[in-house]
Each structure stands twice: as structure tokens, then as C-alpha cells.
Amino acid sequence: MSNDTPSEKAEAAAIRRRWITLGEVLAVVAALISALTLWNSYTERSHAEAEKAGAAKQASARAATLLLKAEPNKDGDRLSLEPIGADQSIQSQVIAFPAALGVTHVDTTGDARIEADWFEDGLKKSRRNARRKDETVGDEQVPVAVTSQFIADGTMHTDVALYDIGYALEGRLIGGSRLRLRGLSRIGRATPETAQARVDAIWNKRQPAPAEPTND
């Protein structure tokens, strides 16, 4: 038979209730810690996957964008074209000149290049019609649209871009001036539908305004 007084029994019961409550609190805290750990792990994994997907997307975009570099030969009558990206390989190109030059577009396969002979006569004629000199000081530009078929990461891509061909007209004793190619400078991207129109607009914008007639 217990000798505990009623007050002692009440205190013991209260202690048991506090231990039960403390146990419940600890269980809830443990559950919260577990949930936070799982959420933190999920967040880190999602963030890592997003970064990986973003990096892959950027790499794919870079692979699908062709940037050309040009190397003139010693005579300046030819520009050899190569992609800046080492993992890209040009298969074919179409070079479109300003319509004012009267030059049809030129197709190349394998040997990516621009040759002075393709547009020299048209360029000189256009300059004469605009009453521009046959010789130049420094470099001038001819805009062109370059449509390239190229392989990157084993996949065929198409790139349509606008470039300036840097050139100079140098005088010589016999046969008039000579077209010398200097290099290539990228202007921007284009679409197959708008490339020719944009080339023509750039060319026309750069031409000097016609001289006003004088009243003698």
C-alpha cells in the first residue's frame, strides 16, 4: 500500500505529464529538423540541376553560333575564312553582296573564302557611279550576308550573319586601281528572309548623297 500523500501523488502525475509533453516537443523538433534537411537537400539538388541545365543551354547556344575570322593572303586578293570555335567545321557558305554591285551570290563548298575577283568590277563601277575616287585612304567596307552550313558537336547548324569586308583600292601605273582585301568584321545576325534587304540598306546608307546641281 502506498504511503504517498495526495499532494505527492499530484506532483508525481504532474512530472509525468511534463515528461510526456517534453517528449512530444522533442519529437516535433526532430520531425522539423528532418523536414528542413530534406528541403535543403532538395533545394541544393534542384539548384545544381538548374545550373547544369543552364550551362548546357549556353554551351549549345555557343556551338550553334558561328563567328568567323579572316586571313588575307599576301596579295590581298583572297580572304580565307575559319570559325573561331575550334570544335566547328564549315561545310558550305553562300556570300550575298549588295545588289547595287550587280554581283550574284557566290556559293563555296569546303574551301571557305572570299575572293576580290568576285566583286571588284562591280565595286569599282558602283564607286564611279557615285563619283567616288578610284583610290582610297585607309580601309573602306562592303557589307555582305554570309550563310554558313557548319558542324558543331556532331550536329549540322545554319548561321546567317552580316559582315563588313574591309578593303582598299590601291593605284597602279597600268590598269587603274587594284582591290586589296584587308579583313572581315561582324555586324550582326540576320534571317534568310531579311539578309539581302539589310545588306542593301547598309550599303545605300553609306553612299554619299548625290551632288546638287549648280546654277551657272
Describe what this molecule looks like in 3D:
The chain is of the alpha+beta class and 216 residues long. It has two domains: 1-63; 66-206, no CATH class. It is built from three helices and eight strands. The protein has helices spanning 6-63, 120-129, 195-206; strands at residues 68-72, 78-83, 88-96, 106-109, 113-115, 140-152, 155-170, 178-189. The strands form two sheets. A five-stranded antiparallel β-sheet has the order 4-3-6-7-8, covered by helices on one side. The radius of gyration is 37 Å and the shape is rod-shaped.
Question: Mind describing the biggest β-sheet?
Answer: 5 strands, antiparallel
Strand order of the largest sheet: 4-3-6-7-8
Counting DSSP H or I runs of 4 or more residues, the number of helices is 3
| Separation, N- and C-terminal Cα atoms | 141 Å
Rg result: 37 Å
Number of strands: 8
Helix content: 25-40%
Derived structural class: alpha+beta
| Fraction in beta strands | 25-35%
Average pLDDT across residues? Answer: 83
Estimate nothing, just give the exact number of structural domains: 2
Q: Low-confidence stretches at least 5 residues in length (pLDDT < 50)?
A: none
Gross geometry: rod-shaped
- Order of secondary-structure elements: HEEEEEHEEEH
List its traits:
216 residues, alpha+beta, five-stranded antiparallel β-sheet, three-stranded antiparallel β-sheet, 3 helices, 37% helix, 31% strand
